Amino acid sequence: DALGIVRQELGGKTALLGFAGAPWTLAAYMVEGGSPAHSPAIARLAQNEPGQFEKLMRKLTRAVTECLRLQVAAGADAVQIFDSWGALCPAEHYEKWSLSWIKEIIAALPPKTPVIFFAKGMAQHATALQATGAKVLSLDQSVDLAAFRRAHPNIATQGNLEPELLAGEPDQVRTATSELLRLVTGPGHIVNLGHGITPQAKIECVAALVETVVASSLSA
Questions:
Q1: Of 2-16, 57-71, 95-109, 137-151, which gets the smallest average pLDDT?
Q2: pLDDT in tens, 178-212
Q3: CA distances (Å), 200 to each of 1, 203, 206, in order?
Q4: d(Cα 180, Cα 114) in Å, to the nearest integer?
Q5: Residue 164 pLDDT > 90, yes or no?
Q6: Contact 110, 71 (CB under 8 A)
């Protein structure tokens, strides 16, 4: 209902994005009972109790799929899937334990639904991430954006700005945003942060980010 109301208020003038957590990341929070940063219990569950792990992932996959379907039906122009704790998954298991479920979700969405996929700390697996069916890969702030785009010229990208910038000064935000725009050669990049906005972000810094991007697009 909220998405439908926002869609109506926007009047078609601004894109509306939906989002959901990836099954692996949701499972990490559920199994840990909080932030899993220092104790990847989900990896131990997957390794030691594969049957229980699969049951959990299958339930989460159904729930995420239904959530995103409802968002698309309510008017979302695109949806983003966040695998914020993807880096907790051992590299040799990442495709089976996380990406296979993402692929299943994307395949179950309405045809041609644009999907943005964010897997924090996993940009080195770009080819596998794209193979899920996602149209855009969102990059955290640790990624060398220019190098990534040179290595993967056919992959649309998003993000890469340091979230902590928005807790600083507007001039710093303008400088960093202008530098990012300079690095992005050609189309196919959505300006955004490298992860979520922090509680310390200042309204004037958010405004500086938006104003810099708008001014750049108008002068292009």
A1: 2-16
A2: 999 988 866 799 999 999 899 999 999 999 999 99
A3: 29, 10, 11
A4: 23
A5: yes
A6: no
**d(C-alpha 48, C-alpha 40), whole Å:** 13
Q: Indicate if the alpha-carbon torsion angle 35, 36, 39, 42 is positive or negative.
A: positive
Please give the structure tokens belonging to residue 109: 């969405």
Whole-prediction pTM: 0.91
Q: In whole angstroms, what is the distance from residue 142 CA to residue 153 CA?
A: 19
| Residues 134/117, Cβ–Cβ less than 8 Å | yes
Q: Within a 10 A sphere around the Cβ of 44, how many other Cβ atoms?
A: 12
Distance CA 193, CA 210 (A): 12
pLDDT of residue 205: 97
For residue 220, is pLDDT > 60?
Answer: no
Q: How far apart are CA 188 and CA 51, in angstroms?
A: 40
- Tell me the two tokens of residue 114: 């644009």
Measured CA to CA, the distance from residue 197 to residue 176 in angstroms comes to: 16
Sign of CA dihedral 35, 39, 44, 45: negative
